[in-house]
Amino acid sequence: MKRLLRERRGAAAVLVAGALPMLFGVAALAVDLGMVELERRRIQGVADAAALAAARDTGQAAALAATMVAASPGRYPLTTGTTTGRYRAEAAPDARFVAGAADPDAVRVTVRSEVPTVFAAIFGTPSVAVERRATARRLDLASFAVGSRLASLDGGVANALLSGLTGGKVALSVMDYNALATAKVDLVPWLKVLGADAKIEVARFDDLLKAELPASTILGSLSRQVADPVARAALASLASAAKGTIQLADLIDLGEMGRQGDGGVGLLRIDTLDLASNVIQGSASGRQVAIDLGAQVPGIARTRLWVAIGERPNRAPWIAVTRDRSPIIRTAQTRIYLETQLNAQALEGLSLASVELPLFVELASAEARLEAIECRPHAVTLAGRPAPGQVAIGRADPAALPDFKTPVALTDARLLETLLVRVEGRGAIDLGANESFQTRRFDASAIDAASVQTIRSSTPVGGIATSLMQKVDLRARLLGFLPLPLDPIVRGVGGQLSLIAPVLDPVLMSVTGVLGVGVGEADLWVTGIRCGQPVLIE
Questions:
Q1: Are residues 159 and 36 in the same domain?
Q2: Is residue 7 predicted with pLDDT exceeding 70?
Q3: Residue 8 resides in a domain
Q4: In a domain, 250, yes or no
Q5: Which residues constitute the domain of residue 108?
Q6: Does 291 reside within a domain?
Q7: Over the stretch 490-511, which tens digit does the pLDDT of each residue have?
Q8: Alpha helices in 85-153 (DSSP H)
Q9: 428 and 299 fall within a common domain
Q10: Euclidean distance between CA atoms 215 and 249, whole angstroms
Q11: Beta bridge partners of 429
């Protein structure tokens, strides 16, 4: 008996027998936890797939998500919840998805399941609820611009204007300008090349756009990206003349793509003339240019031109990549003052006399915004409105042009003055101040061809000078003592103005074309579209 009491063999069996209930419980709990974890992983995959499917068409998000969930294999039934909203990448992580926002671009899908338990059922928990969610977003982008595309150009006027803006000497031919207007550059990939040329290492496109860069570096880098030798040489010539600096962010808004450092191929293709002109304007050390064209204009003894370029309101860009109605892009405010002296002509009752004609043009900013992106088939709708302003026959002080906060005072134009008679005149066309937005739709072929669509003011303006001649009010009065018939003199002055107006219109059109502004109209064009694949963001 004593020996049996001292026996140690079999003790483990007793311990195991005592622990078996606990071991069975732990095993059952492990089975429960394993089943829950497996189901959690399974429905996470289901939620991911459902969110990606729903993001393809937010208008049918619930149906698309439910269809994907129903098609997913599994042992347990699933329930689905779907919420549409907008994703704001710049917000804090918890605030990036804005549920129920207008114009949704993201979908959040929640999938729920009930997993039966083994061990937990003993304690009154027959099943465990499992819930997983996923958020997917589809990013559709379009790029577009507003301005005035050159239909024709006077090389002498354009050269004089660009020379004044750069402070150097620009001597391009009409063929050079046409080559620049034809040569395209894929802007976003080119920015990486520009960064290397400027010896700036940045992780994001936006960082490069915000850098203060010499215009000569920008134009020089651009020249090396075009294949046409004529356009390449023209850009190199502009680069050698340019002297100022510019932040390209003043011109270009890449939107969400700006936070990237790669990609964007084919999304933003623009002609090099538009880009070069805007870079030169933005980098000009002075915002007013005075040009003496002398007798370059046929039929005119002398032409003097002053141009003042204002800021774009709210630092609005000239070209943008976006997915919604923000930002609104704008042209720069512009004032143009032209003084011309006509060749001397014989007027009835007078000997040879020369008529002088001052013209004033003031333009606020034309505007454009994105209205809609269509992906099946590809199309983009823009809304825009032309710049309000006025064109007038009247005398102005050129020194007052750069102050865009103060209206320019106009006085009657002294068209003709001799010892015997004076003829004065004034005429104006108001381009309207409250134009409504007009929409234009660009289909895939129009986008590929970089086609331009024009929006026009409710006050139509053909040629600036020609239109003003129809509005001018002429008045004559005698200065001497000789009785002279005034009506023939007034008719003679009016006749000279009518003849010279068609000659002045190309001069003004060249100026507005180089500056990228339009009188009573604005050109809109789409430079690219990208319909993105849905991606998981949460």
A1: no
A2: no
A3: no
A4: no
A5: 20-136
A6: yes
A7: 777 777 788 788 888 888 888 8
A8: none
A9: yes
A10: 13
A11: 391
Q: Judge whether residue 22 has pLDDT over 60.
A: no
Domain identity same for 68 and 149: no
- CB 135 within 8 Å of CB 535: no
Are 107 and 157 contained in the same domain? no
pTM exceeds 0.90: no
**Tokens found for residue 113:** 């399941």
Residue 73 pLDDT class (50, 70, 90 cuts) = confident
Dist. CA 40–CA 510, nearest whole Å: 68
Q: Buried b vs exposed e over 286-317: b needs ≥16 C-beta within 10 Å?
A: ebbbebebeeebeebebbbbbbbbbebeeebb
How confident is the model over 66-74, as a mean pLDDT? 84
Count of structural domains within the chain? 2
Predicted local confidence at residue 379, as pLDDT: 94
Residues 491 and 435 both lie in one domain: yes
Verify that 105 and 148 share a domain, yes or no.
no
Query: Are the C-beta atoms of residues 527 and 322 closer than 8 Å to each other?
Result: no
Same domain (yes/no): 376, 466: yes
Helix (H) or strand (E) holding 237: helix 229-241
Query: Does residue 417 contact residue 367 with C-beta atoms inside 8 Å?
Result: no
Q: How far is CA 128 from the centre of its chain?
A: 53
DSSP for 57-79? -GGGHHHHHHHHHHTS--SS-EE
Q: Give the length of the chain.
A: 538
* 183-234: pLDDT as tens digits: 999 998 999 999 999 998 888 999 999 999 999 999 999 999 999 999 999 9
Average of pLDDT values for 143-150? 85
Give the pair of three-digit tokens for residue 384.
Answer: 């825009």
Please indicate, yes or no, if residue 507 is contained in any of the structural domains: yes
